[in-house]
Each structure stands twice: as C-alpha cells, then as structure tokens.
Amino acid sequence: GVSFGFAAAGLVGLAVAPWLLVLAIAAHGVLDLLKHRGLGARVPTWYLVGCAAFDLAYAVWLATQHGGSFA
C-alpha cells in the first residue's frame, strides 16, 4: 500500500526524476503529521512530530542541493 508507493517513488526518483524523491520524502512528513492528528497507526506523539520535522527539513535541504536541479 502506502509503503510500496513511497518505496517506488524513491526508486524512480533515484533513477529518473530526482524531484520525485524530494516529493516522496516531503509526503512522508505530511503523512506523519496526519497520523499525529489521529489518522493511521498509533505511535508516540514525540516520534511522529520528530519524524515529520526531519522528513520535511530533509526534503527542503535535498531540494536546494545541486544548484536546485532536484526541484
């Protein structure tokens, strides 16, 4: 399901379209925020907030690398 979608986007991003990798990482952060709002698996709040913050920060950082060619 969702995990397969993120894995597929990551692999396609690495091979063909780097912006897709950035998008998948950011989408994972958004998914974590939705879980924090009560949607999806129950995990500790500190984990969801930390994972979302890391994913979104990493996506922004990755998008700014290589002269912006990732975005």
Task: Outline the fold blueprint.
Layout: H1 2-15, H2 18-36, H3 45-64
Helix pairs in contact: 1-2, 2-3
Would you give an account of this structure?
This protein is mostly helical. The chain is 75% helix and 0% strand. It contains 3 helices and no strands.
Q: How many beta strands in the DSSP annotation?
A: 0
Mean pLDDT: 81
Q: Outline the low-pLDDT stretches.
A: none
Rg of Cα set = 13 Å
| Structural class assignment | mainly alpha
Biggest beta sheet summary = none
The helix count comes to 3
Strand content: under 5%
* Helix percent band: over 70%
Order of helices and strands: HHH
Oligomer: single chain
Shape: flat
- Terminus-to-terminus distance: 26 Å
Features:
single chain; 71 residues; mainly alpha; 3 helices; 75% helix; 0% strand
Sum this structure up briefly.
With 71 residues, the protein is mainly α. The chain has helices at residues 2-15, 18-36, 45-64.
